Amino acid sequence: MAGRGGAARPNGPAAGNKICQFKLVLLGESAVGKSSLVLRFVKGQFHEYQESTIGAAFLTQTVCLDDTTVKFEIWDTAGQERYHSLAPMYYRGAQAAIVVYDITNTDTFARAKNWVKELQRQASPNIVIALAGNKADLASKRAVEFQPLPHFLSILFLASVGNQEAQAYADDNSLLFMETSAKTAMNVNEIFMAIAKKLPKNEPQNAAGAPGGTRGVNLQESNPASRSQCCSN
To answer: Which portions of the chain have biased composition (kind: Polar residues) (predicted)?
Structure first.
């Protein structure tokens, strides 16, 4: 797992960097912190009381790798069950997805597994899926089932057991996995950077209309002006 705190984004791309654009969708139960993660990543902000997303929200942010600038088109979807039928419209054509759960709520982890199954069945075959165990700042309230231990061992293992369970699930399903905290910025930039590194940069695809359109476009020639704006946020 990456260290605590948001990693500083590079100042800008080196001359000649490729600029690629990818569609990324966030999925998960209501109130797990999807919007807070996006707000922290895009604007570096955290609001203790975040209004529930209605339908979906759209934001963009860039990250800079050694030879490539990755622009994320981020669709933050609503977690309420009544919006579930809209989800395929947002993850269709997405190159990446972050499935979010709340480490203090086992039901949201079970729901996250269902989202992963749905993506594996219906999303793009090569989609990069990351699993984010959010609210890591509330690790003392972690909701995890484990065998009773002596008190002193319980203290030692409390913070690691839930992480091991999720990590094992992520490994079995070839997912990226990090525990995150939108409140403290723990691993927020890191999870997006990890996704950016896994995305294929040499297979640009044709752009289509949002939200269902496929994105994976090399913008180096079509919009060279955007290069100067990289990582300015």
So the answer is: 217-233
- Into how many domains does the chain fold? 1
Instruction: Output DSSP code: residue 194.
Output: H
State the CATH number of the domain containing residue 79: 3.40.50.300
Whether 203 is covered by a domain: the verdict is no
Beta bridge partners of 128: 96
Q: Which residue range(s) make up the domain with 101?
A: 18-198
Give CA–CA dist 210/65, Å, rounded: 25
Distance CA 2, CA 217 (A): 29
**What's the predicted TM-score (pTM) here?**
0.77
Residue 216 located in a structural domain:
no
**Residue 191 within any structural domain of the chain:** yes
For 86, how many CA atoms within 13 A lie in the half-sphere containing its CB?
18
* CA distances for 205 relative to 16, 214, 219, angstroms: 20, 7, 11
Q: Is residue 42 a part of any domain in this protein?
A: yes
CA separation for the pair 98, 34 (Å, rounded): 9
108-161 confidence digits (pLDDT tens): 999 999 999 999 999 999 999 999 999 999 988 887 433 344 544 444 444 555
Phi first, then psi: what are they for 230, rounded to 5°? -60, 135
**Alpha-carbon span 116 to 10, nearest angstrom:** 31
